[in-house]
Amino acid sequence: MARLRRPIRPAPGPHSCGAVARAGGGGWPSTRPDWTTLPNDKPLYEADVDLAVPIADCDAHLSVIRYAAVQLPADLTAPLSELVRQLDGLASEEPLVALKALADLRYVITQVGEDAAYELAAADVPIGEVATALGTSEAAARSYLGSYLHP
């Protein structure tokens, strides 16, 4: 049986930072490259394009969004980090065990997600507050909550 290679995840495109900035309530980054003047036949690093300012703008926007989002307590982040580490190892060494663990996690996520979404709906928490807490846009937060409220 042929072994499949893990696909390489593409890097974020030029639109990523703008979307993140808009999700955080900001606008486009202050300095955007003029994409119409860039060569189509080679990557940006070969076209001698200075992306330092747009990247710094994007990093600043991400920092603002992360700072405004709800911070997870250390006693939750530590086991989550360990779980990710273990699942990462299992994915290549014991893929069936990894998939079973993910299936079990999906069940837990669905149950807890429904409870949390119904609590937020019952408390009539504004969608803007939910979006800020999650570090996303209002549309994404509405969709996220809706997936639990109306499965």
Description:
By secondary structure, the chain is mainly alpha-helical. It is built from six helices and no strands. The protein is extended. About 14% of the residues have low confidence. Helix 1 packs parallel to helix 2, helix 3 runs antiparallel to helix 4 and helix 5 crosses helix 6.
- Radius of gyration, rounded? 20 Å
**Main sheet, how many strands, which sense, barrel?**
none
Instruction: Please trace the helix and strand order, writing H or E for each element.
Output: HHHHHH
Low-confidence stretches: 6-26
Outline: extended
Compute the number of helices: 6
Tally of strands: 0
Distance between the termini: 37 Å
Q: Please identify the oligomeric state.
A: single chain
Descriptive terms for the model:
151 residues; mainly alpha
Give the SSE map.
Layout: H1 16-23, H2 52-68, H3 74-93, H4 95-122, H5 127-134, H6 138-149
Helix pairs in contact: 1-2, 3-4, 4-6, 5-6
Quick structural summary:
The chain is an all-alpha fold. The protein contains 6 helices and no strands.
